[in-house]
Structure formats: C-alpha cells, structure tokens
Write a structure and sequence with these properties.
By secondary structure, the chain is an alpha/beta fold. It is built from 13 helices and eleven strands. Helix content is 45%, strand content 17%. The structure holds (2S)-2-hydroxybutanedioic acid (LMR).
Amino acid sequence: MKISKLLFGLVVCAVSAGPLTALADDPIVIKFSHVVANDTPKGLGADFFAKRAGELTKGKVKVEVYGNSTLYKDKEELEALQLGAVQMLAPSLAKFGPLGVKEFEVFDLPYIFDNYVDLHKVTQGPLGKSLLKKLEPKGVTGLAYWDNGFKSFSANTPIMMPEDLKGKKLRIQSSKVLEAQMRALKAIPQVMAFSEVYQALQTGVVDGTENPISNLYTQKFFEVQKHLALTDHGYLGYAVIVNKKFWDGLPADVRGQLEAAMKESTEYANKIAKEQNDKDLESVKKTGKTAVHVPTPEQRLAFKKALVPVHKEMESRIGKDLLQSVYKETGFDPSKL
Ligand code: LMR
C-alpha cells in the first residue's frame, strides 16, 4: 500500500486524538471507509448509519463516510483499520483471508445459499456471531453482516455454459475459494482491488469478472462487458467491523447508542439490498450495452455441477465442522443437485 497515505492517516488520527482524550465538546469521529459507490446497498447502509449514529448519540459521535476507495483500497483499508487510521469498514466477506481469518470464505462457496432467507439463518444467527468472534485476536470487532447480493458472471463473449469461461482471465477478490471456483471453470483467476477492475476490463488485462448487479452498474462495468449471465452462483456480502481498541475505549453509553444505530442500519441495509440490485438490473438493461442472459434450468444445473465440487476441495481450508454447520442451518446437501 501507499505507506505515505497510511502514515498521513496515522498522524491525523494521532493529532485528532481518541475518544478518551477528546475535549468535552469535541465529537468522537468515526471514519468509515469503503470501496463501493454511495448508491449501493453498502454505500446507503453506511450513510444511514452515519445519520442514525449522529442522532442517537445527540451529536457526540460524528461518522465520516469515505466511499468509492477515496481513502483506501481493499487491502489497504484492513491495514488502516488495524493501525487505527480509520475506525470502521465493511469489507466483503471474501476479503478476510489475508487478515488470517479464512473461515469467512465459507460464504464464497458457490451455490451454498439458495436465497437471502437461507443466508440469514447463518449471518443473523449464532453461527454468524461465532464467526465474528474470530476477528477479535486480530484487533478487530465484528458488529454486523450487511447484504449485497448474488453474483453474476460477465465477459465480452456470451456465457451460456461453464465451458464458455474456459481460458478467460477473470478478476476475483482475494479469496482462495474464489480462486478454486474459477479454476473449476478452467478460467484464470486474477486477484485485483475493486477500484482497478473497470480499467482492467477496459484494457483487456482481464476478460471478465463476477459481482452482484449493484456493483456492475454503479462501477459502470456494463460499458466494458458485452455479456452478463444471471447465474446467481455465489453470495457477496459484508462484515461491518471496527478497530477493537477504539470500540472498547468508547464510553459505555455511547457504545450502546452506536450498537442501536448499527442494529437499525443492518435492518435497513438488508432490506434495500435486493431492491437496489433489482433496480440496477433494470438500469443495465436500459443502457443496451450489455446483453443480459437468464440461464435455462439446464444451464443452471451445468454451472452447479461444475462448481459445487469446490466445497469438498476447500473443506480443509474452511473447516469441516463449519461447513457442516452451515449445511445444517440452510439444508444444503451437495450430494443432491
Ligand atoms: C469486490 O471487490 O468486488 C467487492 O467486494 C466490492 C464490494 O465491497 O462490494
């Protein structure tokens, strides 16, 4: 990462002082950094939290939202959070491996969740809570899970069957499960920061990618991808996280008010996620730049058959017990396709 940028952030946070040393009337500042557009489920969720945090703490807390990678990119933002240069993030669950918490990659397994209802049994239940606890030794406190949605493949050539992605260079997030997923399609996975994807697609550094429609639309990937297949082959969502030291150092009443603001924001973000993606799909269609293909049941089954073996392949990385616990919650049975 750009060390100068991070150092600048650290100096700013050192001179702006933490919650315990702030002057009585100074608001406690929470810098909330993220990489997506403001008009997305995560962007809108962050703005909602900023508003409610201000209201519920009666101005004692000021949340500053920095969207669209304006402050930090993917990997940088996690480092910045651990160092205290920012206080809050909502990275996608596919980005926690480099932090040393690879269990979150269970969410990347293709087809593991059929719909939001099954997914919420995990994210909004005890299993989700126990996964967040794994962040604590890293100096990170997990507060909530926010949805984006189910991913679709895009490229410049039609995507009807798994073979259509063979040999293609496809951008992925930094997840070993996603790497295995692309290899199962005989594609060539390329890890890349979200902020670099548009240009990489435009210049042909990569041929295609996967993302929920809200990201495809708001990052304008439709300008540089002629084909989109609504495969819904995997989930993309977020863990809202804070620097643990900062969080534990907050006055207890303020922390309680922020927890209440987070609860409301989670309900809001998870309510609008599907609506945003549906709305953005209509907008993509309207542009006329990207042909949208809805896979037939046979094509969907072919993708499932190609990708579900990734579960077994990644079992030892994710943990057999965790995988079985998720299956138990959702009823997914990899032997029955
Ligand atoms: C991506 O890198 O594709 C996504 O994680 C971006 C995001 O935060 O939705």
